[in-house]
Amino acid sequence: MAGRPYRISPALAVSLILVAALLAGCSVARPAETTRLRVLQMNLCNSGMAKGCYTGRSVDRAAEVIRAERPDVVTLNEICSGDVAALEQAMVQVHDGTVVAAFQPARNGRTGDPYRCVNGQQYGVGVLAHLAAPEGGHTVHNGFYPAQDPADPEQRAWLCVEAGTVYFACTTHLAYTSAALALAQCSHLLGVAIPQLHARARYQPTVVSGDLNLRHGGAPDVRSCVPADYRHRHDGGVQQFMATADVNIESTRSIGMAGTTDHAAFLVTLTTNREQHPAA
What we know:
Elements: H1 10-27, E1 33-43, H2 58-69, E2 73-80, H3 81-94, E3 98-105, E4 107-108, E5 123-131, E6 138-144, E7 154-155, E8 157-163, E9 167-172, H4 179-200, E10 206-211, E11 231-234, E12 239-243, E13 247-255, E14 265-274
Parallel strand pairs: 1-2, 9-10
Antiparallel strand pairs: 1-14, 2-5, 3-5, 4-7, 6-8, 8-9, 10-12, 11-12, 13-14
């Protein structure tokens, strides 16, 4: 006689389904999250000290470019502290969510005080970053390079904004008096400061954009300080873009500044890939 079929009770069936779901959740990683970013680098030559490129009109032109291009991140070199607020407003006009602004002055090596523009405001570098909801909160990180030119009172600095749990956006403006010194500063930023930042805070995709006063194919070559696994693009001059390996660069483009400064703006479009931990 054939045996009677074994029947599972409804309660046991539900229990088995729940156990299977829990086991699957523990062993299957969620897919990486992808974020698309447009990073705009600008050297505005707005200190008033460099007469050959100072026009007094570069901040207005920068605001026009921001409104037209709608970047997610703007890195700024050779600016005065008051310029940040003006350009932050341009970002607010074209973005929902939150826009954060950070400024880092260079240091006067003779006095230890912040370096100054001709108008008396602090002089340095800045970052503007758009934080799309629900990714909230930001932290500012900064520092000065251990290697500086003793003959130049302007001591160079770096600045990073930790944008929620999405990315780090960094900028710097390196020494112009010596390419070897600029290379040492670049090596410190990419080889020491940013790795320490990742260890101290948390790792996230990281972009670095700025006027490094170093060139692709130059002597020394800027590639000498870029880690082997980093992405790297340049504007054909001294403005460089570097990013960790989990960043995919889609395109780059130079944007004219209508003679208001001596550098074109440099726009990089990219995606970041954040690996997700397995579900608990």
